[in-house]
Write a structure and sequence with these properties.
By secondary structure, the protein is an all-alpha fold. The protein is built from eleven helices and no strands. The protein has two domains: 55 residues, Arc Repressor Mutant, subunit A (Orthogonal Bundle); 149 residues, Tetracycline Repressor, domain 2, CATH 1.10.357. Helix content is 74%, strand content 0%. α6 crosses α7, α6 packs parallel to α9 and α7 runs antiparallel to α9. One of its GO terms (molecular function) is DNA-binding transcription factor activity.
Length: 208
């Protein structure tokens, strides 16, 4: 890569990180190019697609954050506390970092490196869920697919309340956690979605 191309790529990476964290991964590519001081064509010449740019600038950041949250949750002595910490911390990240919100809900399945990070995060979440269920504190019918929808719901809420009532998400999460305790459980009216159904539904949300 020529020196001028390297400089442009670095400027684009910096601008993309800033805008993705301000607005989420759907931030306009033209705005990223404008902030970087390069043409829209230069962005496409260097990265080709939004997903390629996301993989370049977001994946490592997301991996660091999600891995650390999982590690902290699994290290807690009390399994319920670890489960609650995991949900509360990721929901807070959805408020403060829109890019992480989009990562958690898997909005860009064609970003291959990022999806690998999401897969690792899902595996960790499964361990966190099973640990709390084995301890008897989390209702036994809660699944990893259900957890995706906790985060998807919070993602929608986070975008709507960010400027009006930025802390109101905590109320919703508190209600959710109370309802997930074993002693609060009642029979559910339907079965959970399959992983494939979750993939399709989240794709519909991303497309909307």
């Amino acid at each position: 890569m020529r020196a001028d191309a390297r400089r442009n790529a670095e400027k684009l990476r910096t601008a993309a990180v800033e805008l993705f964290r301000e607005r989420g991964l759907q931030a306009p590519l033209k705005e990223i190019a404008r902030r970087a001081g390069v043409s829209h064509g230069t962005l496409y010449n260097l990265y080709g697609t939004r997903e390629a740019l996301i993989d370049e600038v977001v994946t490592d950041l997301a991996a660091d954050r999600l891995d650390e949250v999982s590690r902290q949750a699994l290290a807690m002595d009390d399994a319920w506390d670890g489960f609650a910490y995991y949900i509360e911390t990721l929901c807070e990240l959805q408020i403060t970092d829109p890019a992480i919100s989009d990562v958690v809900t898997g909005r860009y399945p064609n970003a291959e490196r990022l999806m690998a990070v999401c897969g690792r995060a899902h595996d960790a979440a499964t361990r966190i869920i099973e640990r709390a269920q084995q301890a008897g504190s989390l209702r036994p019918d809660f699944t990893g697919e259900d957890l995706v929808f906790v985060f998807a719901t919070n993602s929608v809420l986070s975008r709507a309340v960010r400027d009006t009532a930025p802390d109101v998400w905590r109320r919703g999460v508190a209600f959710t956690l109370d309802g997930l305790r074993t002693e609060a459980a009642h029979p559910l009216p339907t079965a959970p979605l399959t992983p494939q159904q979750v993939y399709e539904v989240m794709g519909n949300i991303a497309g909307g």
